[in-house]
Specification:
Layout (H helix, E strand, L loop, with lengths): L9 H12 L3 H14 L4 E7 L5 E6 L6 H6 L27 H7 L2 E7 L6 E7 L2 E8 L4 E7 L6 H6 L3 H18 L4 E6 L2 E6 L4 H9 L7 E7 L3 E8 L11 E5 L2 E3 L2 H10 L12 E7 L4 E2 L10 E2 L2 H18 L11
Parallel strand pairs: 1-7, 11-13
Antiparallel strand pairs: 1-2, 2-6, 3-4, 3-6, 4-5, 7-8, 9-10, 10-13, 11-12, 14-15
Helix pairs in contact: 1-4, 2-6, 8-9
Bound molecules: adenosine-5'-diphosphate and magnesium ion (MG).
């Protein structure tokens, strides 16, 4: 009997992985912005054309890559961020799976330009559907620029599945805002079809929130701060009278990574107990700091879900910190025996 199992060629494996990592242009935006943050950039610019269907480009002034690393960065499981399995439990970077660039390069036209600070000449690589078309030296600024064009050019079913520009742009803005909110100390710009949508200077958290949500949001923010052995909580919640029927200003970050978590969302609402009108959602921008050993973020390729060691304790710390700051700012009477 002949054997029938074959190892898939790399470009096929990359395309399969891309199916999980890249659902739409906004996924490319998230991956490129996170790489720029991991590269220690202090200024990051996002340029988008036609809601990302034609172009998503991220330019950073971070550490850049040398010629060899630039080429390697496009391979699957190629990462500078972890070296061993143990490292998964002490992550300080956004990335670690080493598959974003390989996946994106498998389903788009990608142009990478990069230069390290101490080098005079940088390097430029063009890839189309995992195939390197050319690599050559170029004169370029310190840092990295990655331009992704014609997303899903070789997967028509995916391309046709994309929604209207308005919907895709909304997803892109969501991702941009999440990364910008997670890193107020980094300057971010965003341009769509030559319109400057955001111009955010490096600043503190309150100013960053106001820069994104608009000046009116300033008066509704109530600070939250709590520190226990297990968890540090900081950030802002919106005063209950500003709660809206629609969602959209709810953000939870764990170790500076935006996450979605119904359980923690519930903990925050529990802290508002009795202060919200029916079916309204308060805004919140909560930043949790927790020992990376006590969480697992490697449960989904997009890393927006997390497993916590001690969910219940985290729930009650969040609930009480929200309740406490509402009380402290005289938003609700907090009775002494409840403290
Ligand atoms: P991961 O982020 O999980 O390591 P990626 O495929 O996103 O995987 O990137 C692969 C590698 O390419 C990174 O580990 C990093 O070394 C390098 N890289 C990617 N983007 C940049 C950037 N903007 N600046 C510097 N290095 C980068
Ligand atoms: Mg990455």
């Amino acid at each position: 009997m002949s054997n029938c199992i074959k190892l898939l060629p790399d470009h096929v494996a990359n395309q399969i992985a891309a199916g999980e990592v890249v659902q739409r242009p906004a996924s490319v935006v998230k991956e490129l912005l996170e790489n720029a943050v991991d590269a220690n950039a202090s200024r990051i610019k996002l340029i988008v054309k036609d809601a990302g269907k034609t172009l998503v480009q991220v330019i950073d002034n971070g550490v850049g890559m040398n010629e060899t690393d630039a080429r390697l960065s496009l391979e699957r499981h190629a990462t500078s961020k972890i070296a061993a399995a143990e490292d998964l439990f002490q992550l300080h970077t956004k990335g670690f799976r080493g598959e974003a660039l390989a996946s994106i390069a498998a389903i788009a036209h990608l142009e990478l330009k990069t230069k390290q600070d101490h080098e005079d000449i940088g390097t430029q690589i063009q890839v189309e559907g995992s195939e390197v078309k050319e690599q050559q030296p170029i004169v370029t600024a310190k840092g990295t620029s990655i331009a992704v064009k014609n997303l899903f050019f070789n997967i028509p079913a995916r391309r046709n599945f994309l929604k209207s520009d308005q919907v895709e742009l909304k997803h892109i803005i969501d991702e941009f805002q999440r990364v910008a909110l997670a890193h107020p100390d980094i300057a971010f710009d965003m341009v769509h079809n030559s319109n400057e949508l955001f111009q955010l200077q490096a600043s503190n958290l309150r100013q960053r929130i106001v820069g994104i949500m608009g000046t009116k949001s300033n008066e509704k923010l109530v600070p939250v701060e709590e520190s226990t052995d297990l968890l540090k909580v900081k950030g802002f919640i919106g005063k209950p009278e500003y709660a809206k029927r629609s969602r959209g200003e709810q953000f939870i970050f764990v170790n500076n990574r935006y996450i979605k978590d119904h359980y923690l969302n519930h903990a925050i609402l529990a802290g508002f107990e009795g202060l919200l009108k029916d079916k309204t959602h308060p805004s919140y921008f909560l930043y949790l700091d927790i020992d990376p050993k006590r969480i697992d973020i490697n449960i989904h390729p997009t890393k927006t879900e997390i497993k916590f060691d001690d969910q219940h304790a985290i729930y009650s710390i969040i609930q009480s910190s929200v309740k406490h700051s509402l009380g402290q700012f005289n938003i609700a009477p907090v009775l002494d025996f409840e403290k």
